[in-house]
Amino acid sequence: MAEAYIVESLRTAGGRRKGALAGVHPADLGAAVLNALVDRTGVDPAAIEDVIVGCVSQVGEQAFAFGRNIVLASRLPDSVPAVTIDRQCGSSQQALHFAAQAVMSGTQDIVIAAGAESMTRVPMGSNIALHAQAGIGEGPWPRSIKNRYGVAEFSQFYGAQAIADKYGFTREMMDEYALGSHRKAAAAIKAGAFTEEIVPIETLEGVFAQDEGVRPDSSLEAMAQVKTIAEGGTITAANASQISDGASGAMVVSEAALKRFNLTPIARIVGLTVTAGDPVIMLEEPIPATRKALARAGIKLEDIDLFEVNEAFASVPMAWLKTLGADPAKLNVNGGAIALGHPLGASGTKLMSTLLHALKARGGRYGLQTMCEGGGIANVTIVERL
């Protein structure tokens, strides 16, 4: 099978809800990333054969062929097609998988995988809210599904709490993990670790190019004052990912495209895995998915130099670490979504951008990225830095 290579992977800085990116249309956020990918690589934009965009809340400004609208808002010619996909939080990671599979199959040579989500302008759950307002139908889960699993609805908050309870994680333990995320992110910003991966965005207030959700002065005492999401629970906004606005993307090419455009790859795709399991606890699936991905790639856990495990909630990467016995010093070395934000559909290629640039900075070879997704699904991507 042919190889697939990443020649560039970029992201915007994460904007807080109602923060610096609140005045930017989500299609313009995605367009800025597409433009930057073309500028950085020097690829003829007309040679791009498809753009695959991940987005979760495909309603309002993110509706009506959102991926195509991102292309039309960019400097790419209108001959470049696009499609929008939803695999929940893993949407743009799945976009990367689809892009790589297109290249590996030999059907396309240059594909951009991207994601964009403005959680300020299109709040999480907006698409479900439309059903509630209409007052008709049963919503996304018919009675057949609810009866099968014995639930009234599926909740990521329930899943996060169930994981915390299952693994014995106290609120203090999760707060401590969350504080570590902020400290690592603050140190990364201070060291300029994100400079090469961030696409500056023009806003009415000026150029936005630094993640604004990081709290370098946070403390366990301050976190302890945050109310729990559910009464009697231990999950709080302080030990969960931040609502965020942002976009990201990666250009995936074939060996033929490398030669044609004289490109230098930054990584080779080693493994693409997706698995599914319990939709109720939901967020535990990265654990078996990682095991399967490593087995398929023929790589041992200890051979991976860096891990990016999405911090949807602190309990998720904590359970992943505890079960697999991975080295915590290799995990989310520049902080994670608790500090940097989780712009839903954009988070997949966002994490890949951070992973690849961190591997370069540390001289690492292999990187593994995974994240929990709604419905009990998880994607795993393994890359080799070149």
Walk me through this protein's architecture.
This is Acetyl-CoA C-acetyltransferase. Residues 5-255 form the Thiolase N-terminal domain. There is one protein chain. It is built from 13 helices and twelve strands. It is α+β, with helices and mostly antiparallel strands. The strands form two sheets. Strands 1, 2, 3, 4, 5, 8, 9, 10, 11 and 12 form a ten-stranded mixed beta sheet that branches. The protein has a two-stranded antiparallel sheet with strand order 6-7. Strand 11 and strand 12 form a beta hairpin. The mean pLDDT is 96.
Element layout with pairings:
Blueprint (H helix, E strand, L loop, with lengths): L4 E7 L3 E2 L9 H16 L8 E5 L11 H8 L8 E4 L5 H15 L4 E9 L7 H9 L8 H7 L6 H12 L3 H21 L9 E3 L2 E3 L11 H4 L20 E10 L1 H6 L6 E10 L9 H12 L8 E4 L5 H10 L12 H4 L6 H16 L3 E8 L3 E9 L1
Parallel strand pairs: 3-4, 3-5, 10-11
Antiparallel strand pairs: 1-8, 1-9, 2-8, 5-8, 6-7, 9-12, 11-12
Helix pairs in contact: 1-2, 3-13, 6-11
